[in-house]
Amino acid sequence: MSRRSIDPARLLRRISTLGEIGRDAEGRLVRLAASDSEKLGRDQFVAWLEEAGLEVAVDHIGNIFGIWNGAGGEEKPIMIGSHIDTVINAGIYDGCYGVLAGLEVIQTLKDEGFEPSRPIVVAAFTNEEGVRYAPDMMGSLVYSGGLDVAAALKTLGTDGTLLGDELARIGYAGTHAPGFMTPHAYVELHIEQGPVLEREGLSVGAVENLQGISWQRVTIDGDANHAGTTPISMRRDAGYAAARVIAFLRDRAKSSNTPTVATVGCIAFEPNAINVIPSRATFTVDLRDPDEDRLKEEEAALAAFLELLSAEEKVGISAERLARFEPVKFDSAIVRLIEAAAGDRGLACRRMTSGAGHDAQMIARIAPSAMIFVPSRSGISHNPKEFTTDVDLIAGANILLDVVCGLATG
Ligand code: HGY
Ligand code: MN
Ligand code: MN
Ligand code: MN
């Protein structure tokens, strides 16, 4: 039986083209949500959707949809999605690979005269990364009814802008209501961003669940004072207290035999001067665990430590929640479809948990969802060294093609 296949050259060409859009003066890839550089990426994606003859729709929070109505009529669509916004100094595959593979699958099926039993849609969700506006996965969270769109559009960014103003400024404050299509099924193809598939010599991950995520911003207030004249015993040192929090999180995660991970990704001191004891430290805490009860325990342990620290270091400490998502279990029937597709193509596959957050965890609130992973070299991501071989990229897109055909037949 001649097996369908995507057009490898077209997919690889688009990945590298999009990967060059939104580079800063130092050549770093930075397409933060609703920024001018992200607009360039959005415009390019919309141009490809139009070239493919798809209906383009944009909703109130800037989620972009390419819709192939095909023979499917009014049936609930199959949705293939991910994101094209990036972190700072990003790789070129995170999110973009899944969106462009989704477009590639639709274009391949269209070109071949495939008659789907339902519409097929490719989606690029707004602000999956959450770097400029928290929480992350915001566009798909709003789309799936987990966050009110008016509240989301009022989100204040790290640069003092409002998301809604920025989406309007870049021309992506769309007219469709978030959730205007409820998917029959949702599939997301993504690089693993971790070391498992490469370490085990596998080509495909059938992702069956995704760990819980807790984001907080912690503010510690002490007293600015002279770095030279102030005895240690008289200091209310916000910088030192912040360092103790980082050490606490690291030691706790290292000493436990659980998969809990903890990260302090952003930190700022005030007044941030070499010879002034910091009066204020502001930093973020990202906690994750596949088990909800353990994640709650980690949040409680941190809260208890902050209380103790406040008394010991005589500083004020407050914590603000930025995002909180429970672990998600994906749809086992779609997971089985992914495994069968990999088996049919002779590709080694295993079930796995996603360590990273993804739009699929939000759309799983409204539709049966699952994810397909391909290997990341050395497990690196959120880093320009992020890399996946062409062979793996093409294989993953063909698995997506098979799964979508399976869902769109009958
Ligand atoms: O944070 C995450 O895991 C995702 O990349 N937004
Ligand atoms: Mn991603
Ligand atoms: Mn990411
Ligand atoms: Mn993601």
UniProtKB/TrEMBL annotation:
Protein's organism: Rhizobium redzepovicii
Record key words, sorted: Hydrolase, Metal-binding, Zinc
InterPro entries named in the record: Amidase_Cbmase, Bact_exopeptidase_dim_dom, Peptidase_M20, Peptidase_M20_dimer
Note on how the cofactor is bound: Binds 2 Zn(2+) ions per subunit.
Lineage: superkingdom: Bacteria
Family annotation (SUPFAM superfamilies): Bacterial exopeptidase dimerisation domain (SSF55031), Zn-dependent exopeptidases (SSF53187)
Family assignment from sequence similarity: Belongs to the peptidase M20 family.
Protein name: Zn-dependent hydrolase
Pfam families found in the cross-reference section: M20_dimer (PF07687), Peptidase_M20 (PF01546)
Cofactor: Zn(2+)
Any one GO molecular function term: hydrolase activity, acting on carbon-nitrogen (but not peptide) bonds, in linear amidines
Binding-site residues, Zn(2+) 1: H83, D94, H190
